[in-house]
Fold each of these.
Amino acid sequence: MAILGIDIGGSGIKGALVNAETGELLTDRFRTDTPQPSTPTAVAEVIGQVVRHFEWKGIVGCTFPAIIRNGVVFSAANVDKSWIGTNAKKLFEAKTGCNVTIVNDADAAGIAEMVFGAGRDVPGVVIMLTLGTGIGSALFVDGHLAPNTELGHLEMNGGDAEQQAAESARKREDLSWKEWGKRLNQYFSMVDFLLSPDLFIVGGGVSKKHEKFFKYIETRAPLVPAKMRNHAGIIGGAMAAHALTHEVGEMDFDTQKIMEFHMEKTADN
Ligand code: BGC
């Protein structure tokens, strides 16, 4: 089934049609900059543009870089503060006339990686961390997602970890790979110590350059780059929408159920 996946980030908004059963992109990506200021009205306008670009009338699966519960935004680290308390689902549905599902961006990327990518069939505790404008996190225990973990906002050196260790900090402060790698090492070591994962999956656009910085990160848990790289958000957003609007209950992000759901669908076809 085709679903329009839209990944809303602090810097860019990307959309593509996705085959939600196989995780494949069916079209090229359409990308625009996130409007600044990134108010609900301005972002909704862009979502409308993306939907019109694909002449889409079906289901839309959106990701958003904040805590999301039942379509409502509960935080705003890298988007305009006026998002807090906004029902993004209702806003985007009113703008597009489509049925819209919305989940946290890192949770969506994690779902895609657990079902089709680097976390496939990995038992135990898997943590996906996305390095971009902020640091996003998705925590899985035996394939079950604990949504909205927000590990990017752990305290580090008396401040917010993502301010020091996100990919945006590397660019903003013009850090060498080694300097950034040391900060990442401090951050990943803290998460490793606190949660003892069996695997770290590292996502975000910069994960394609993983040879440049993985060597500085010394964690007990192995570190692997995301397989879907920058497409994981679009694909995961579409997958979550597919499952949530069908048999899998609202707000149930159990990836095993989502995986079973996708496998049954594939077998049917
Ligand atoms: C937000 C998270 C988001 C992450 C990556 C953080 O600043 O608080 O909700 O997942 O950035 O976009």
Amino acid sequence: MKIGIDKIGFYTPHIFVDMEKLAVARNVEPAKFTIGIGQSQMSVAPATQDSVTLAANAALEIINDEDREKIDFVIFGSESGIDHSKSGAVYVHHLLGLNPNARAVELKQACYAATAGIQMAKGHVALNPESKVLVLGTDIARYGLNTSGESTQGAGAVAMIISANPRIMELDNQNVYLTNDIMDFWRPIYSDKAFVDGKFSNEQYILFFNKVWEAYKDKSGLELKDMEAICYHLPYTKMGLKALRTVLDDAPEEVKERLLENYQISTIYNRNVGNIYTGSLYLSLLSLLENKELKDSSRIGMFSYGSGAVGEFFTGILQPNYRQHLNLEGHQQLFNSRQEVSVEEYERIFEETLPADGSDIEFDISRDPATIVLSGSLENKRQYVNKNR
Ligand code: CAA
């Protein structure tokens, strides 16, 4: 039985900062951010968006009434969770009006959690072929104003339906994974901003990629020439390129050219959104699929990396007419309707968070065009609104 990605949706907040303007404000050469890091725009999450609303808005784009009935498992992958106990999946399940006879859980392992979610979903569908699983990768990347990680922030979510007979991508089963206890990037419970050893994280990302790629080649017998493209977890768009370059010497010239060209296409969306942690690899896949017509049955390599660290390499096969099941127009509209905010405005928005002492607050939701928003907090409970209900 074929199992894989049947639908894929995406959401990013309605405001962004221009990276050249951020560079000027930080006294940095703009080319460092646009070329050295490889980012053009950075999505900014207003106080009315959190990991739950981002995920719910991404899912809203893809689910119909049949999905509402058939989804019996919601997996919320995030490292921006809003509660130490209750999962974000339960809120999303309610906001979307899904069938009550469903499981709902949250998974965490930095940027890797959505990949773990997809693998769990595959197992669930293998045992229950009629089921559909909603897998969410949703995050707000926060390092802090004026930090070296600031240029690699971002916000957004990807939602996927994993099912039998998928219409977009069949996932194969020769995955290779790797875990090693390292401190390259982490976020202690008391902090709403990440801690990072930047250079070390870059080195480990590449090391993990090299190790899982080598092992994948041994296990599968496949090589670079068998990949139409390789999509990467993209903390910033230069990162995947650095990893890809380390293996290109093994490939004939035409394969090298193809992989480099498709790499650029796979970074278009990420370049304008920033890091969305768990959703980043899948946003890169979406960018590739929506911005280039690839042949049916093309094999796409996927490198997932979650600091701390877990890495995985796996591949998927594009299904006949997969492009008919994408939403290029909707995503172009999402990007085109975003509004730029000044660096000063972004700084103000960055500091506007729910009160840390749990006191009540009400936000003005009229300025956020998203369908699902956070309207505030009352008696220590986040208040969510689905404007369509
Ligand atoms: N024109 C063009 N390029 C320029 C330039 C200019 N004027 N000035 C500098 N550059 C280049 C540099 O040469 C460098 O390129 P290379 O890496 O190819 O050598 C690049 O711009 C970045 O410069 P620095 O290394 O000096 O940048 P930095 O130290 O200020 O910060 C960073 C870079 C370490 C990535 C930092 O942004 C950071 O810590 N980010 C968060 C951590 C991260 O994203 N790590 C990635 C791996 S971990 C992971 O993937 C998990 C996750 O999501 C967090």
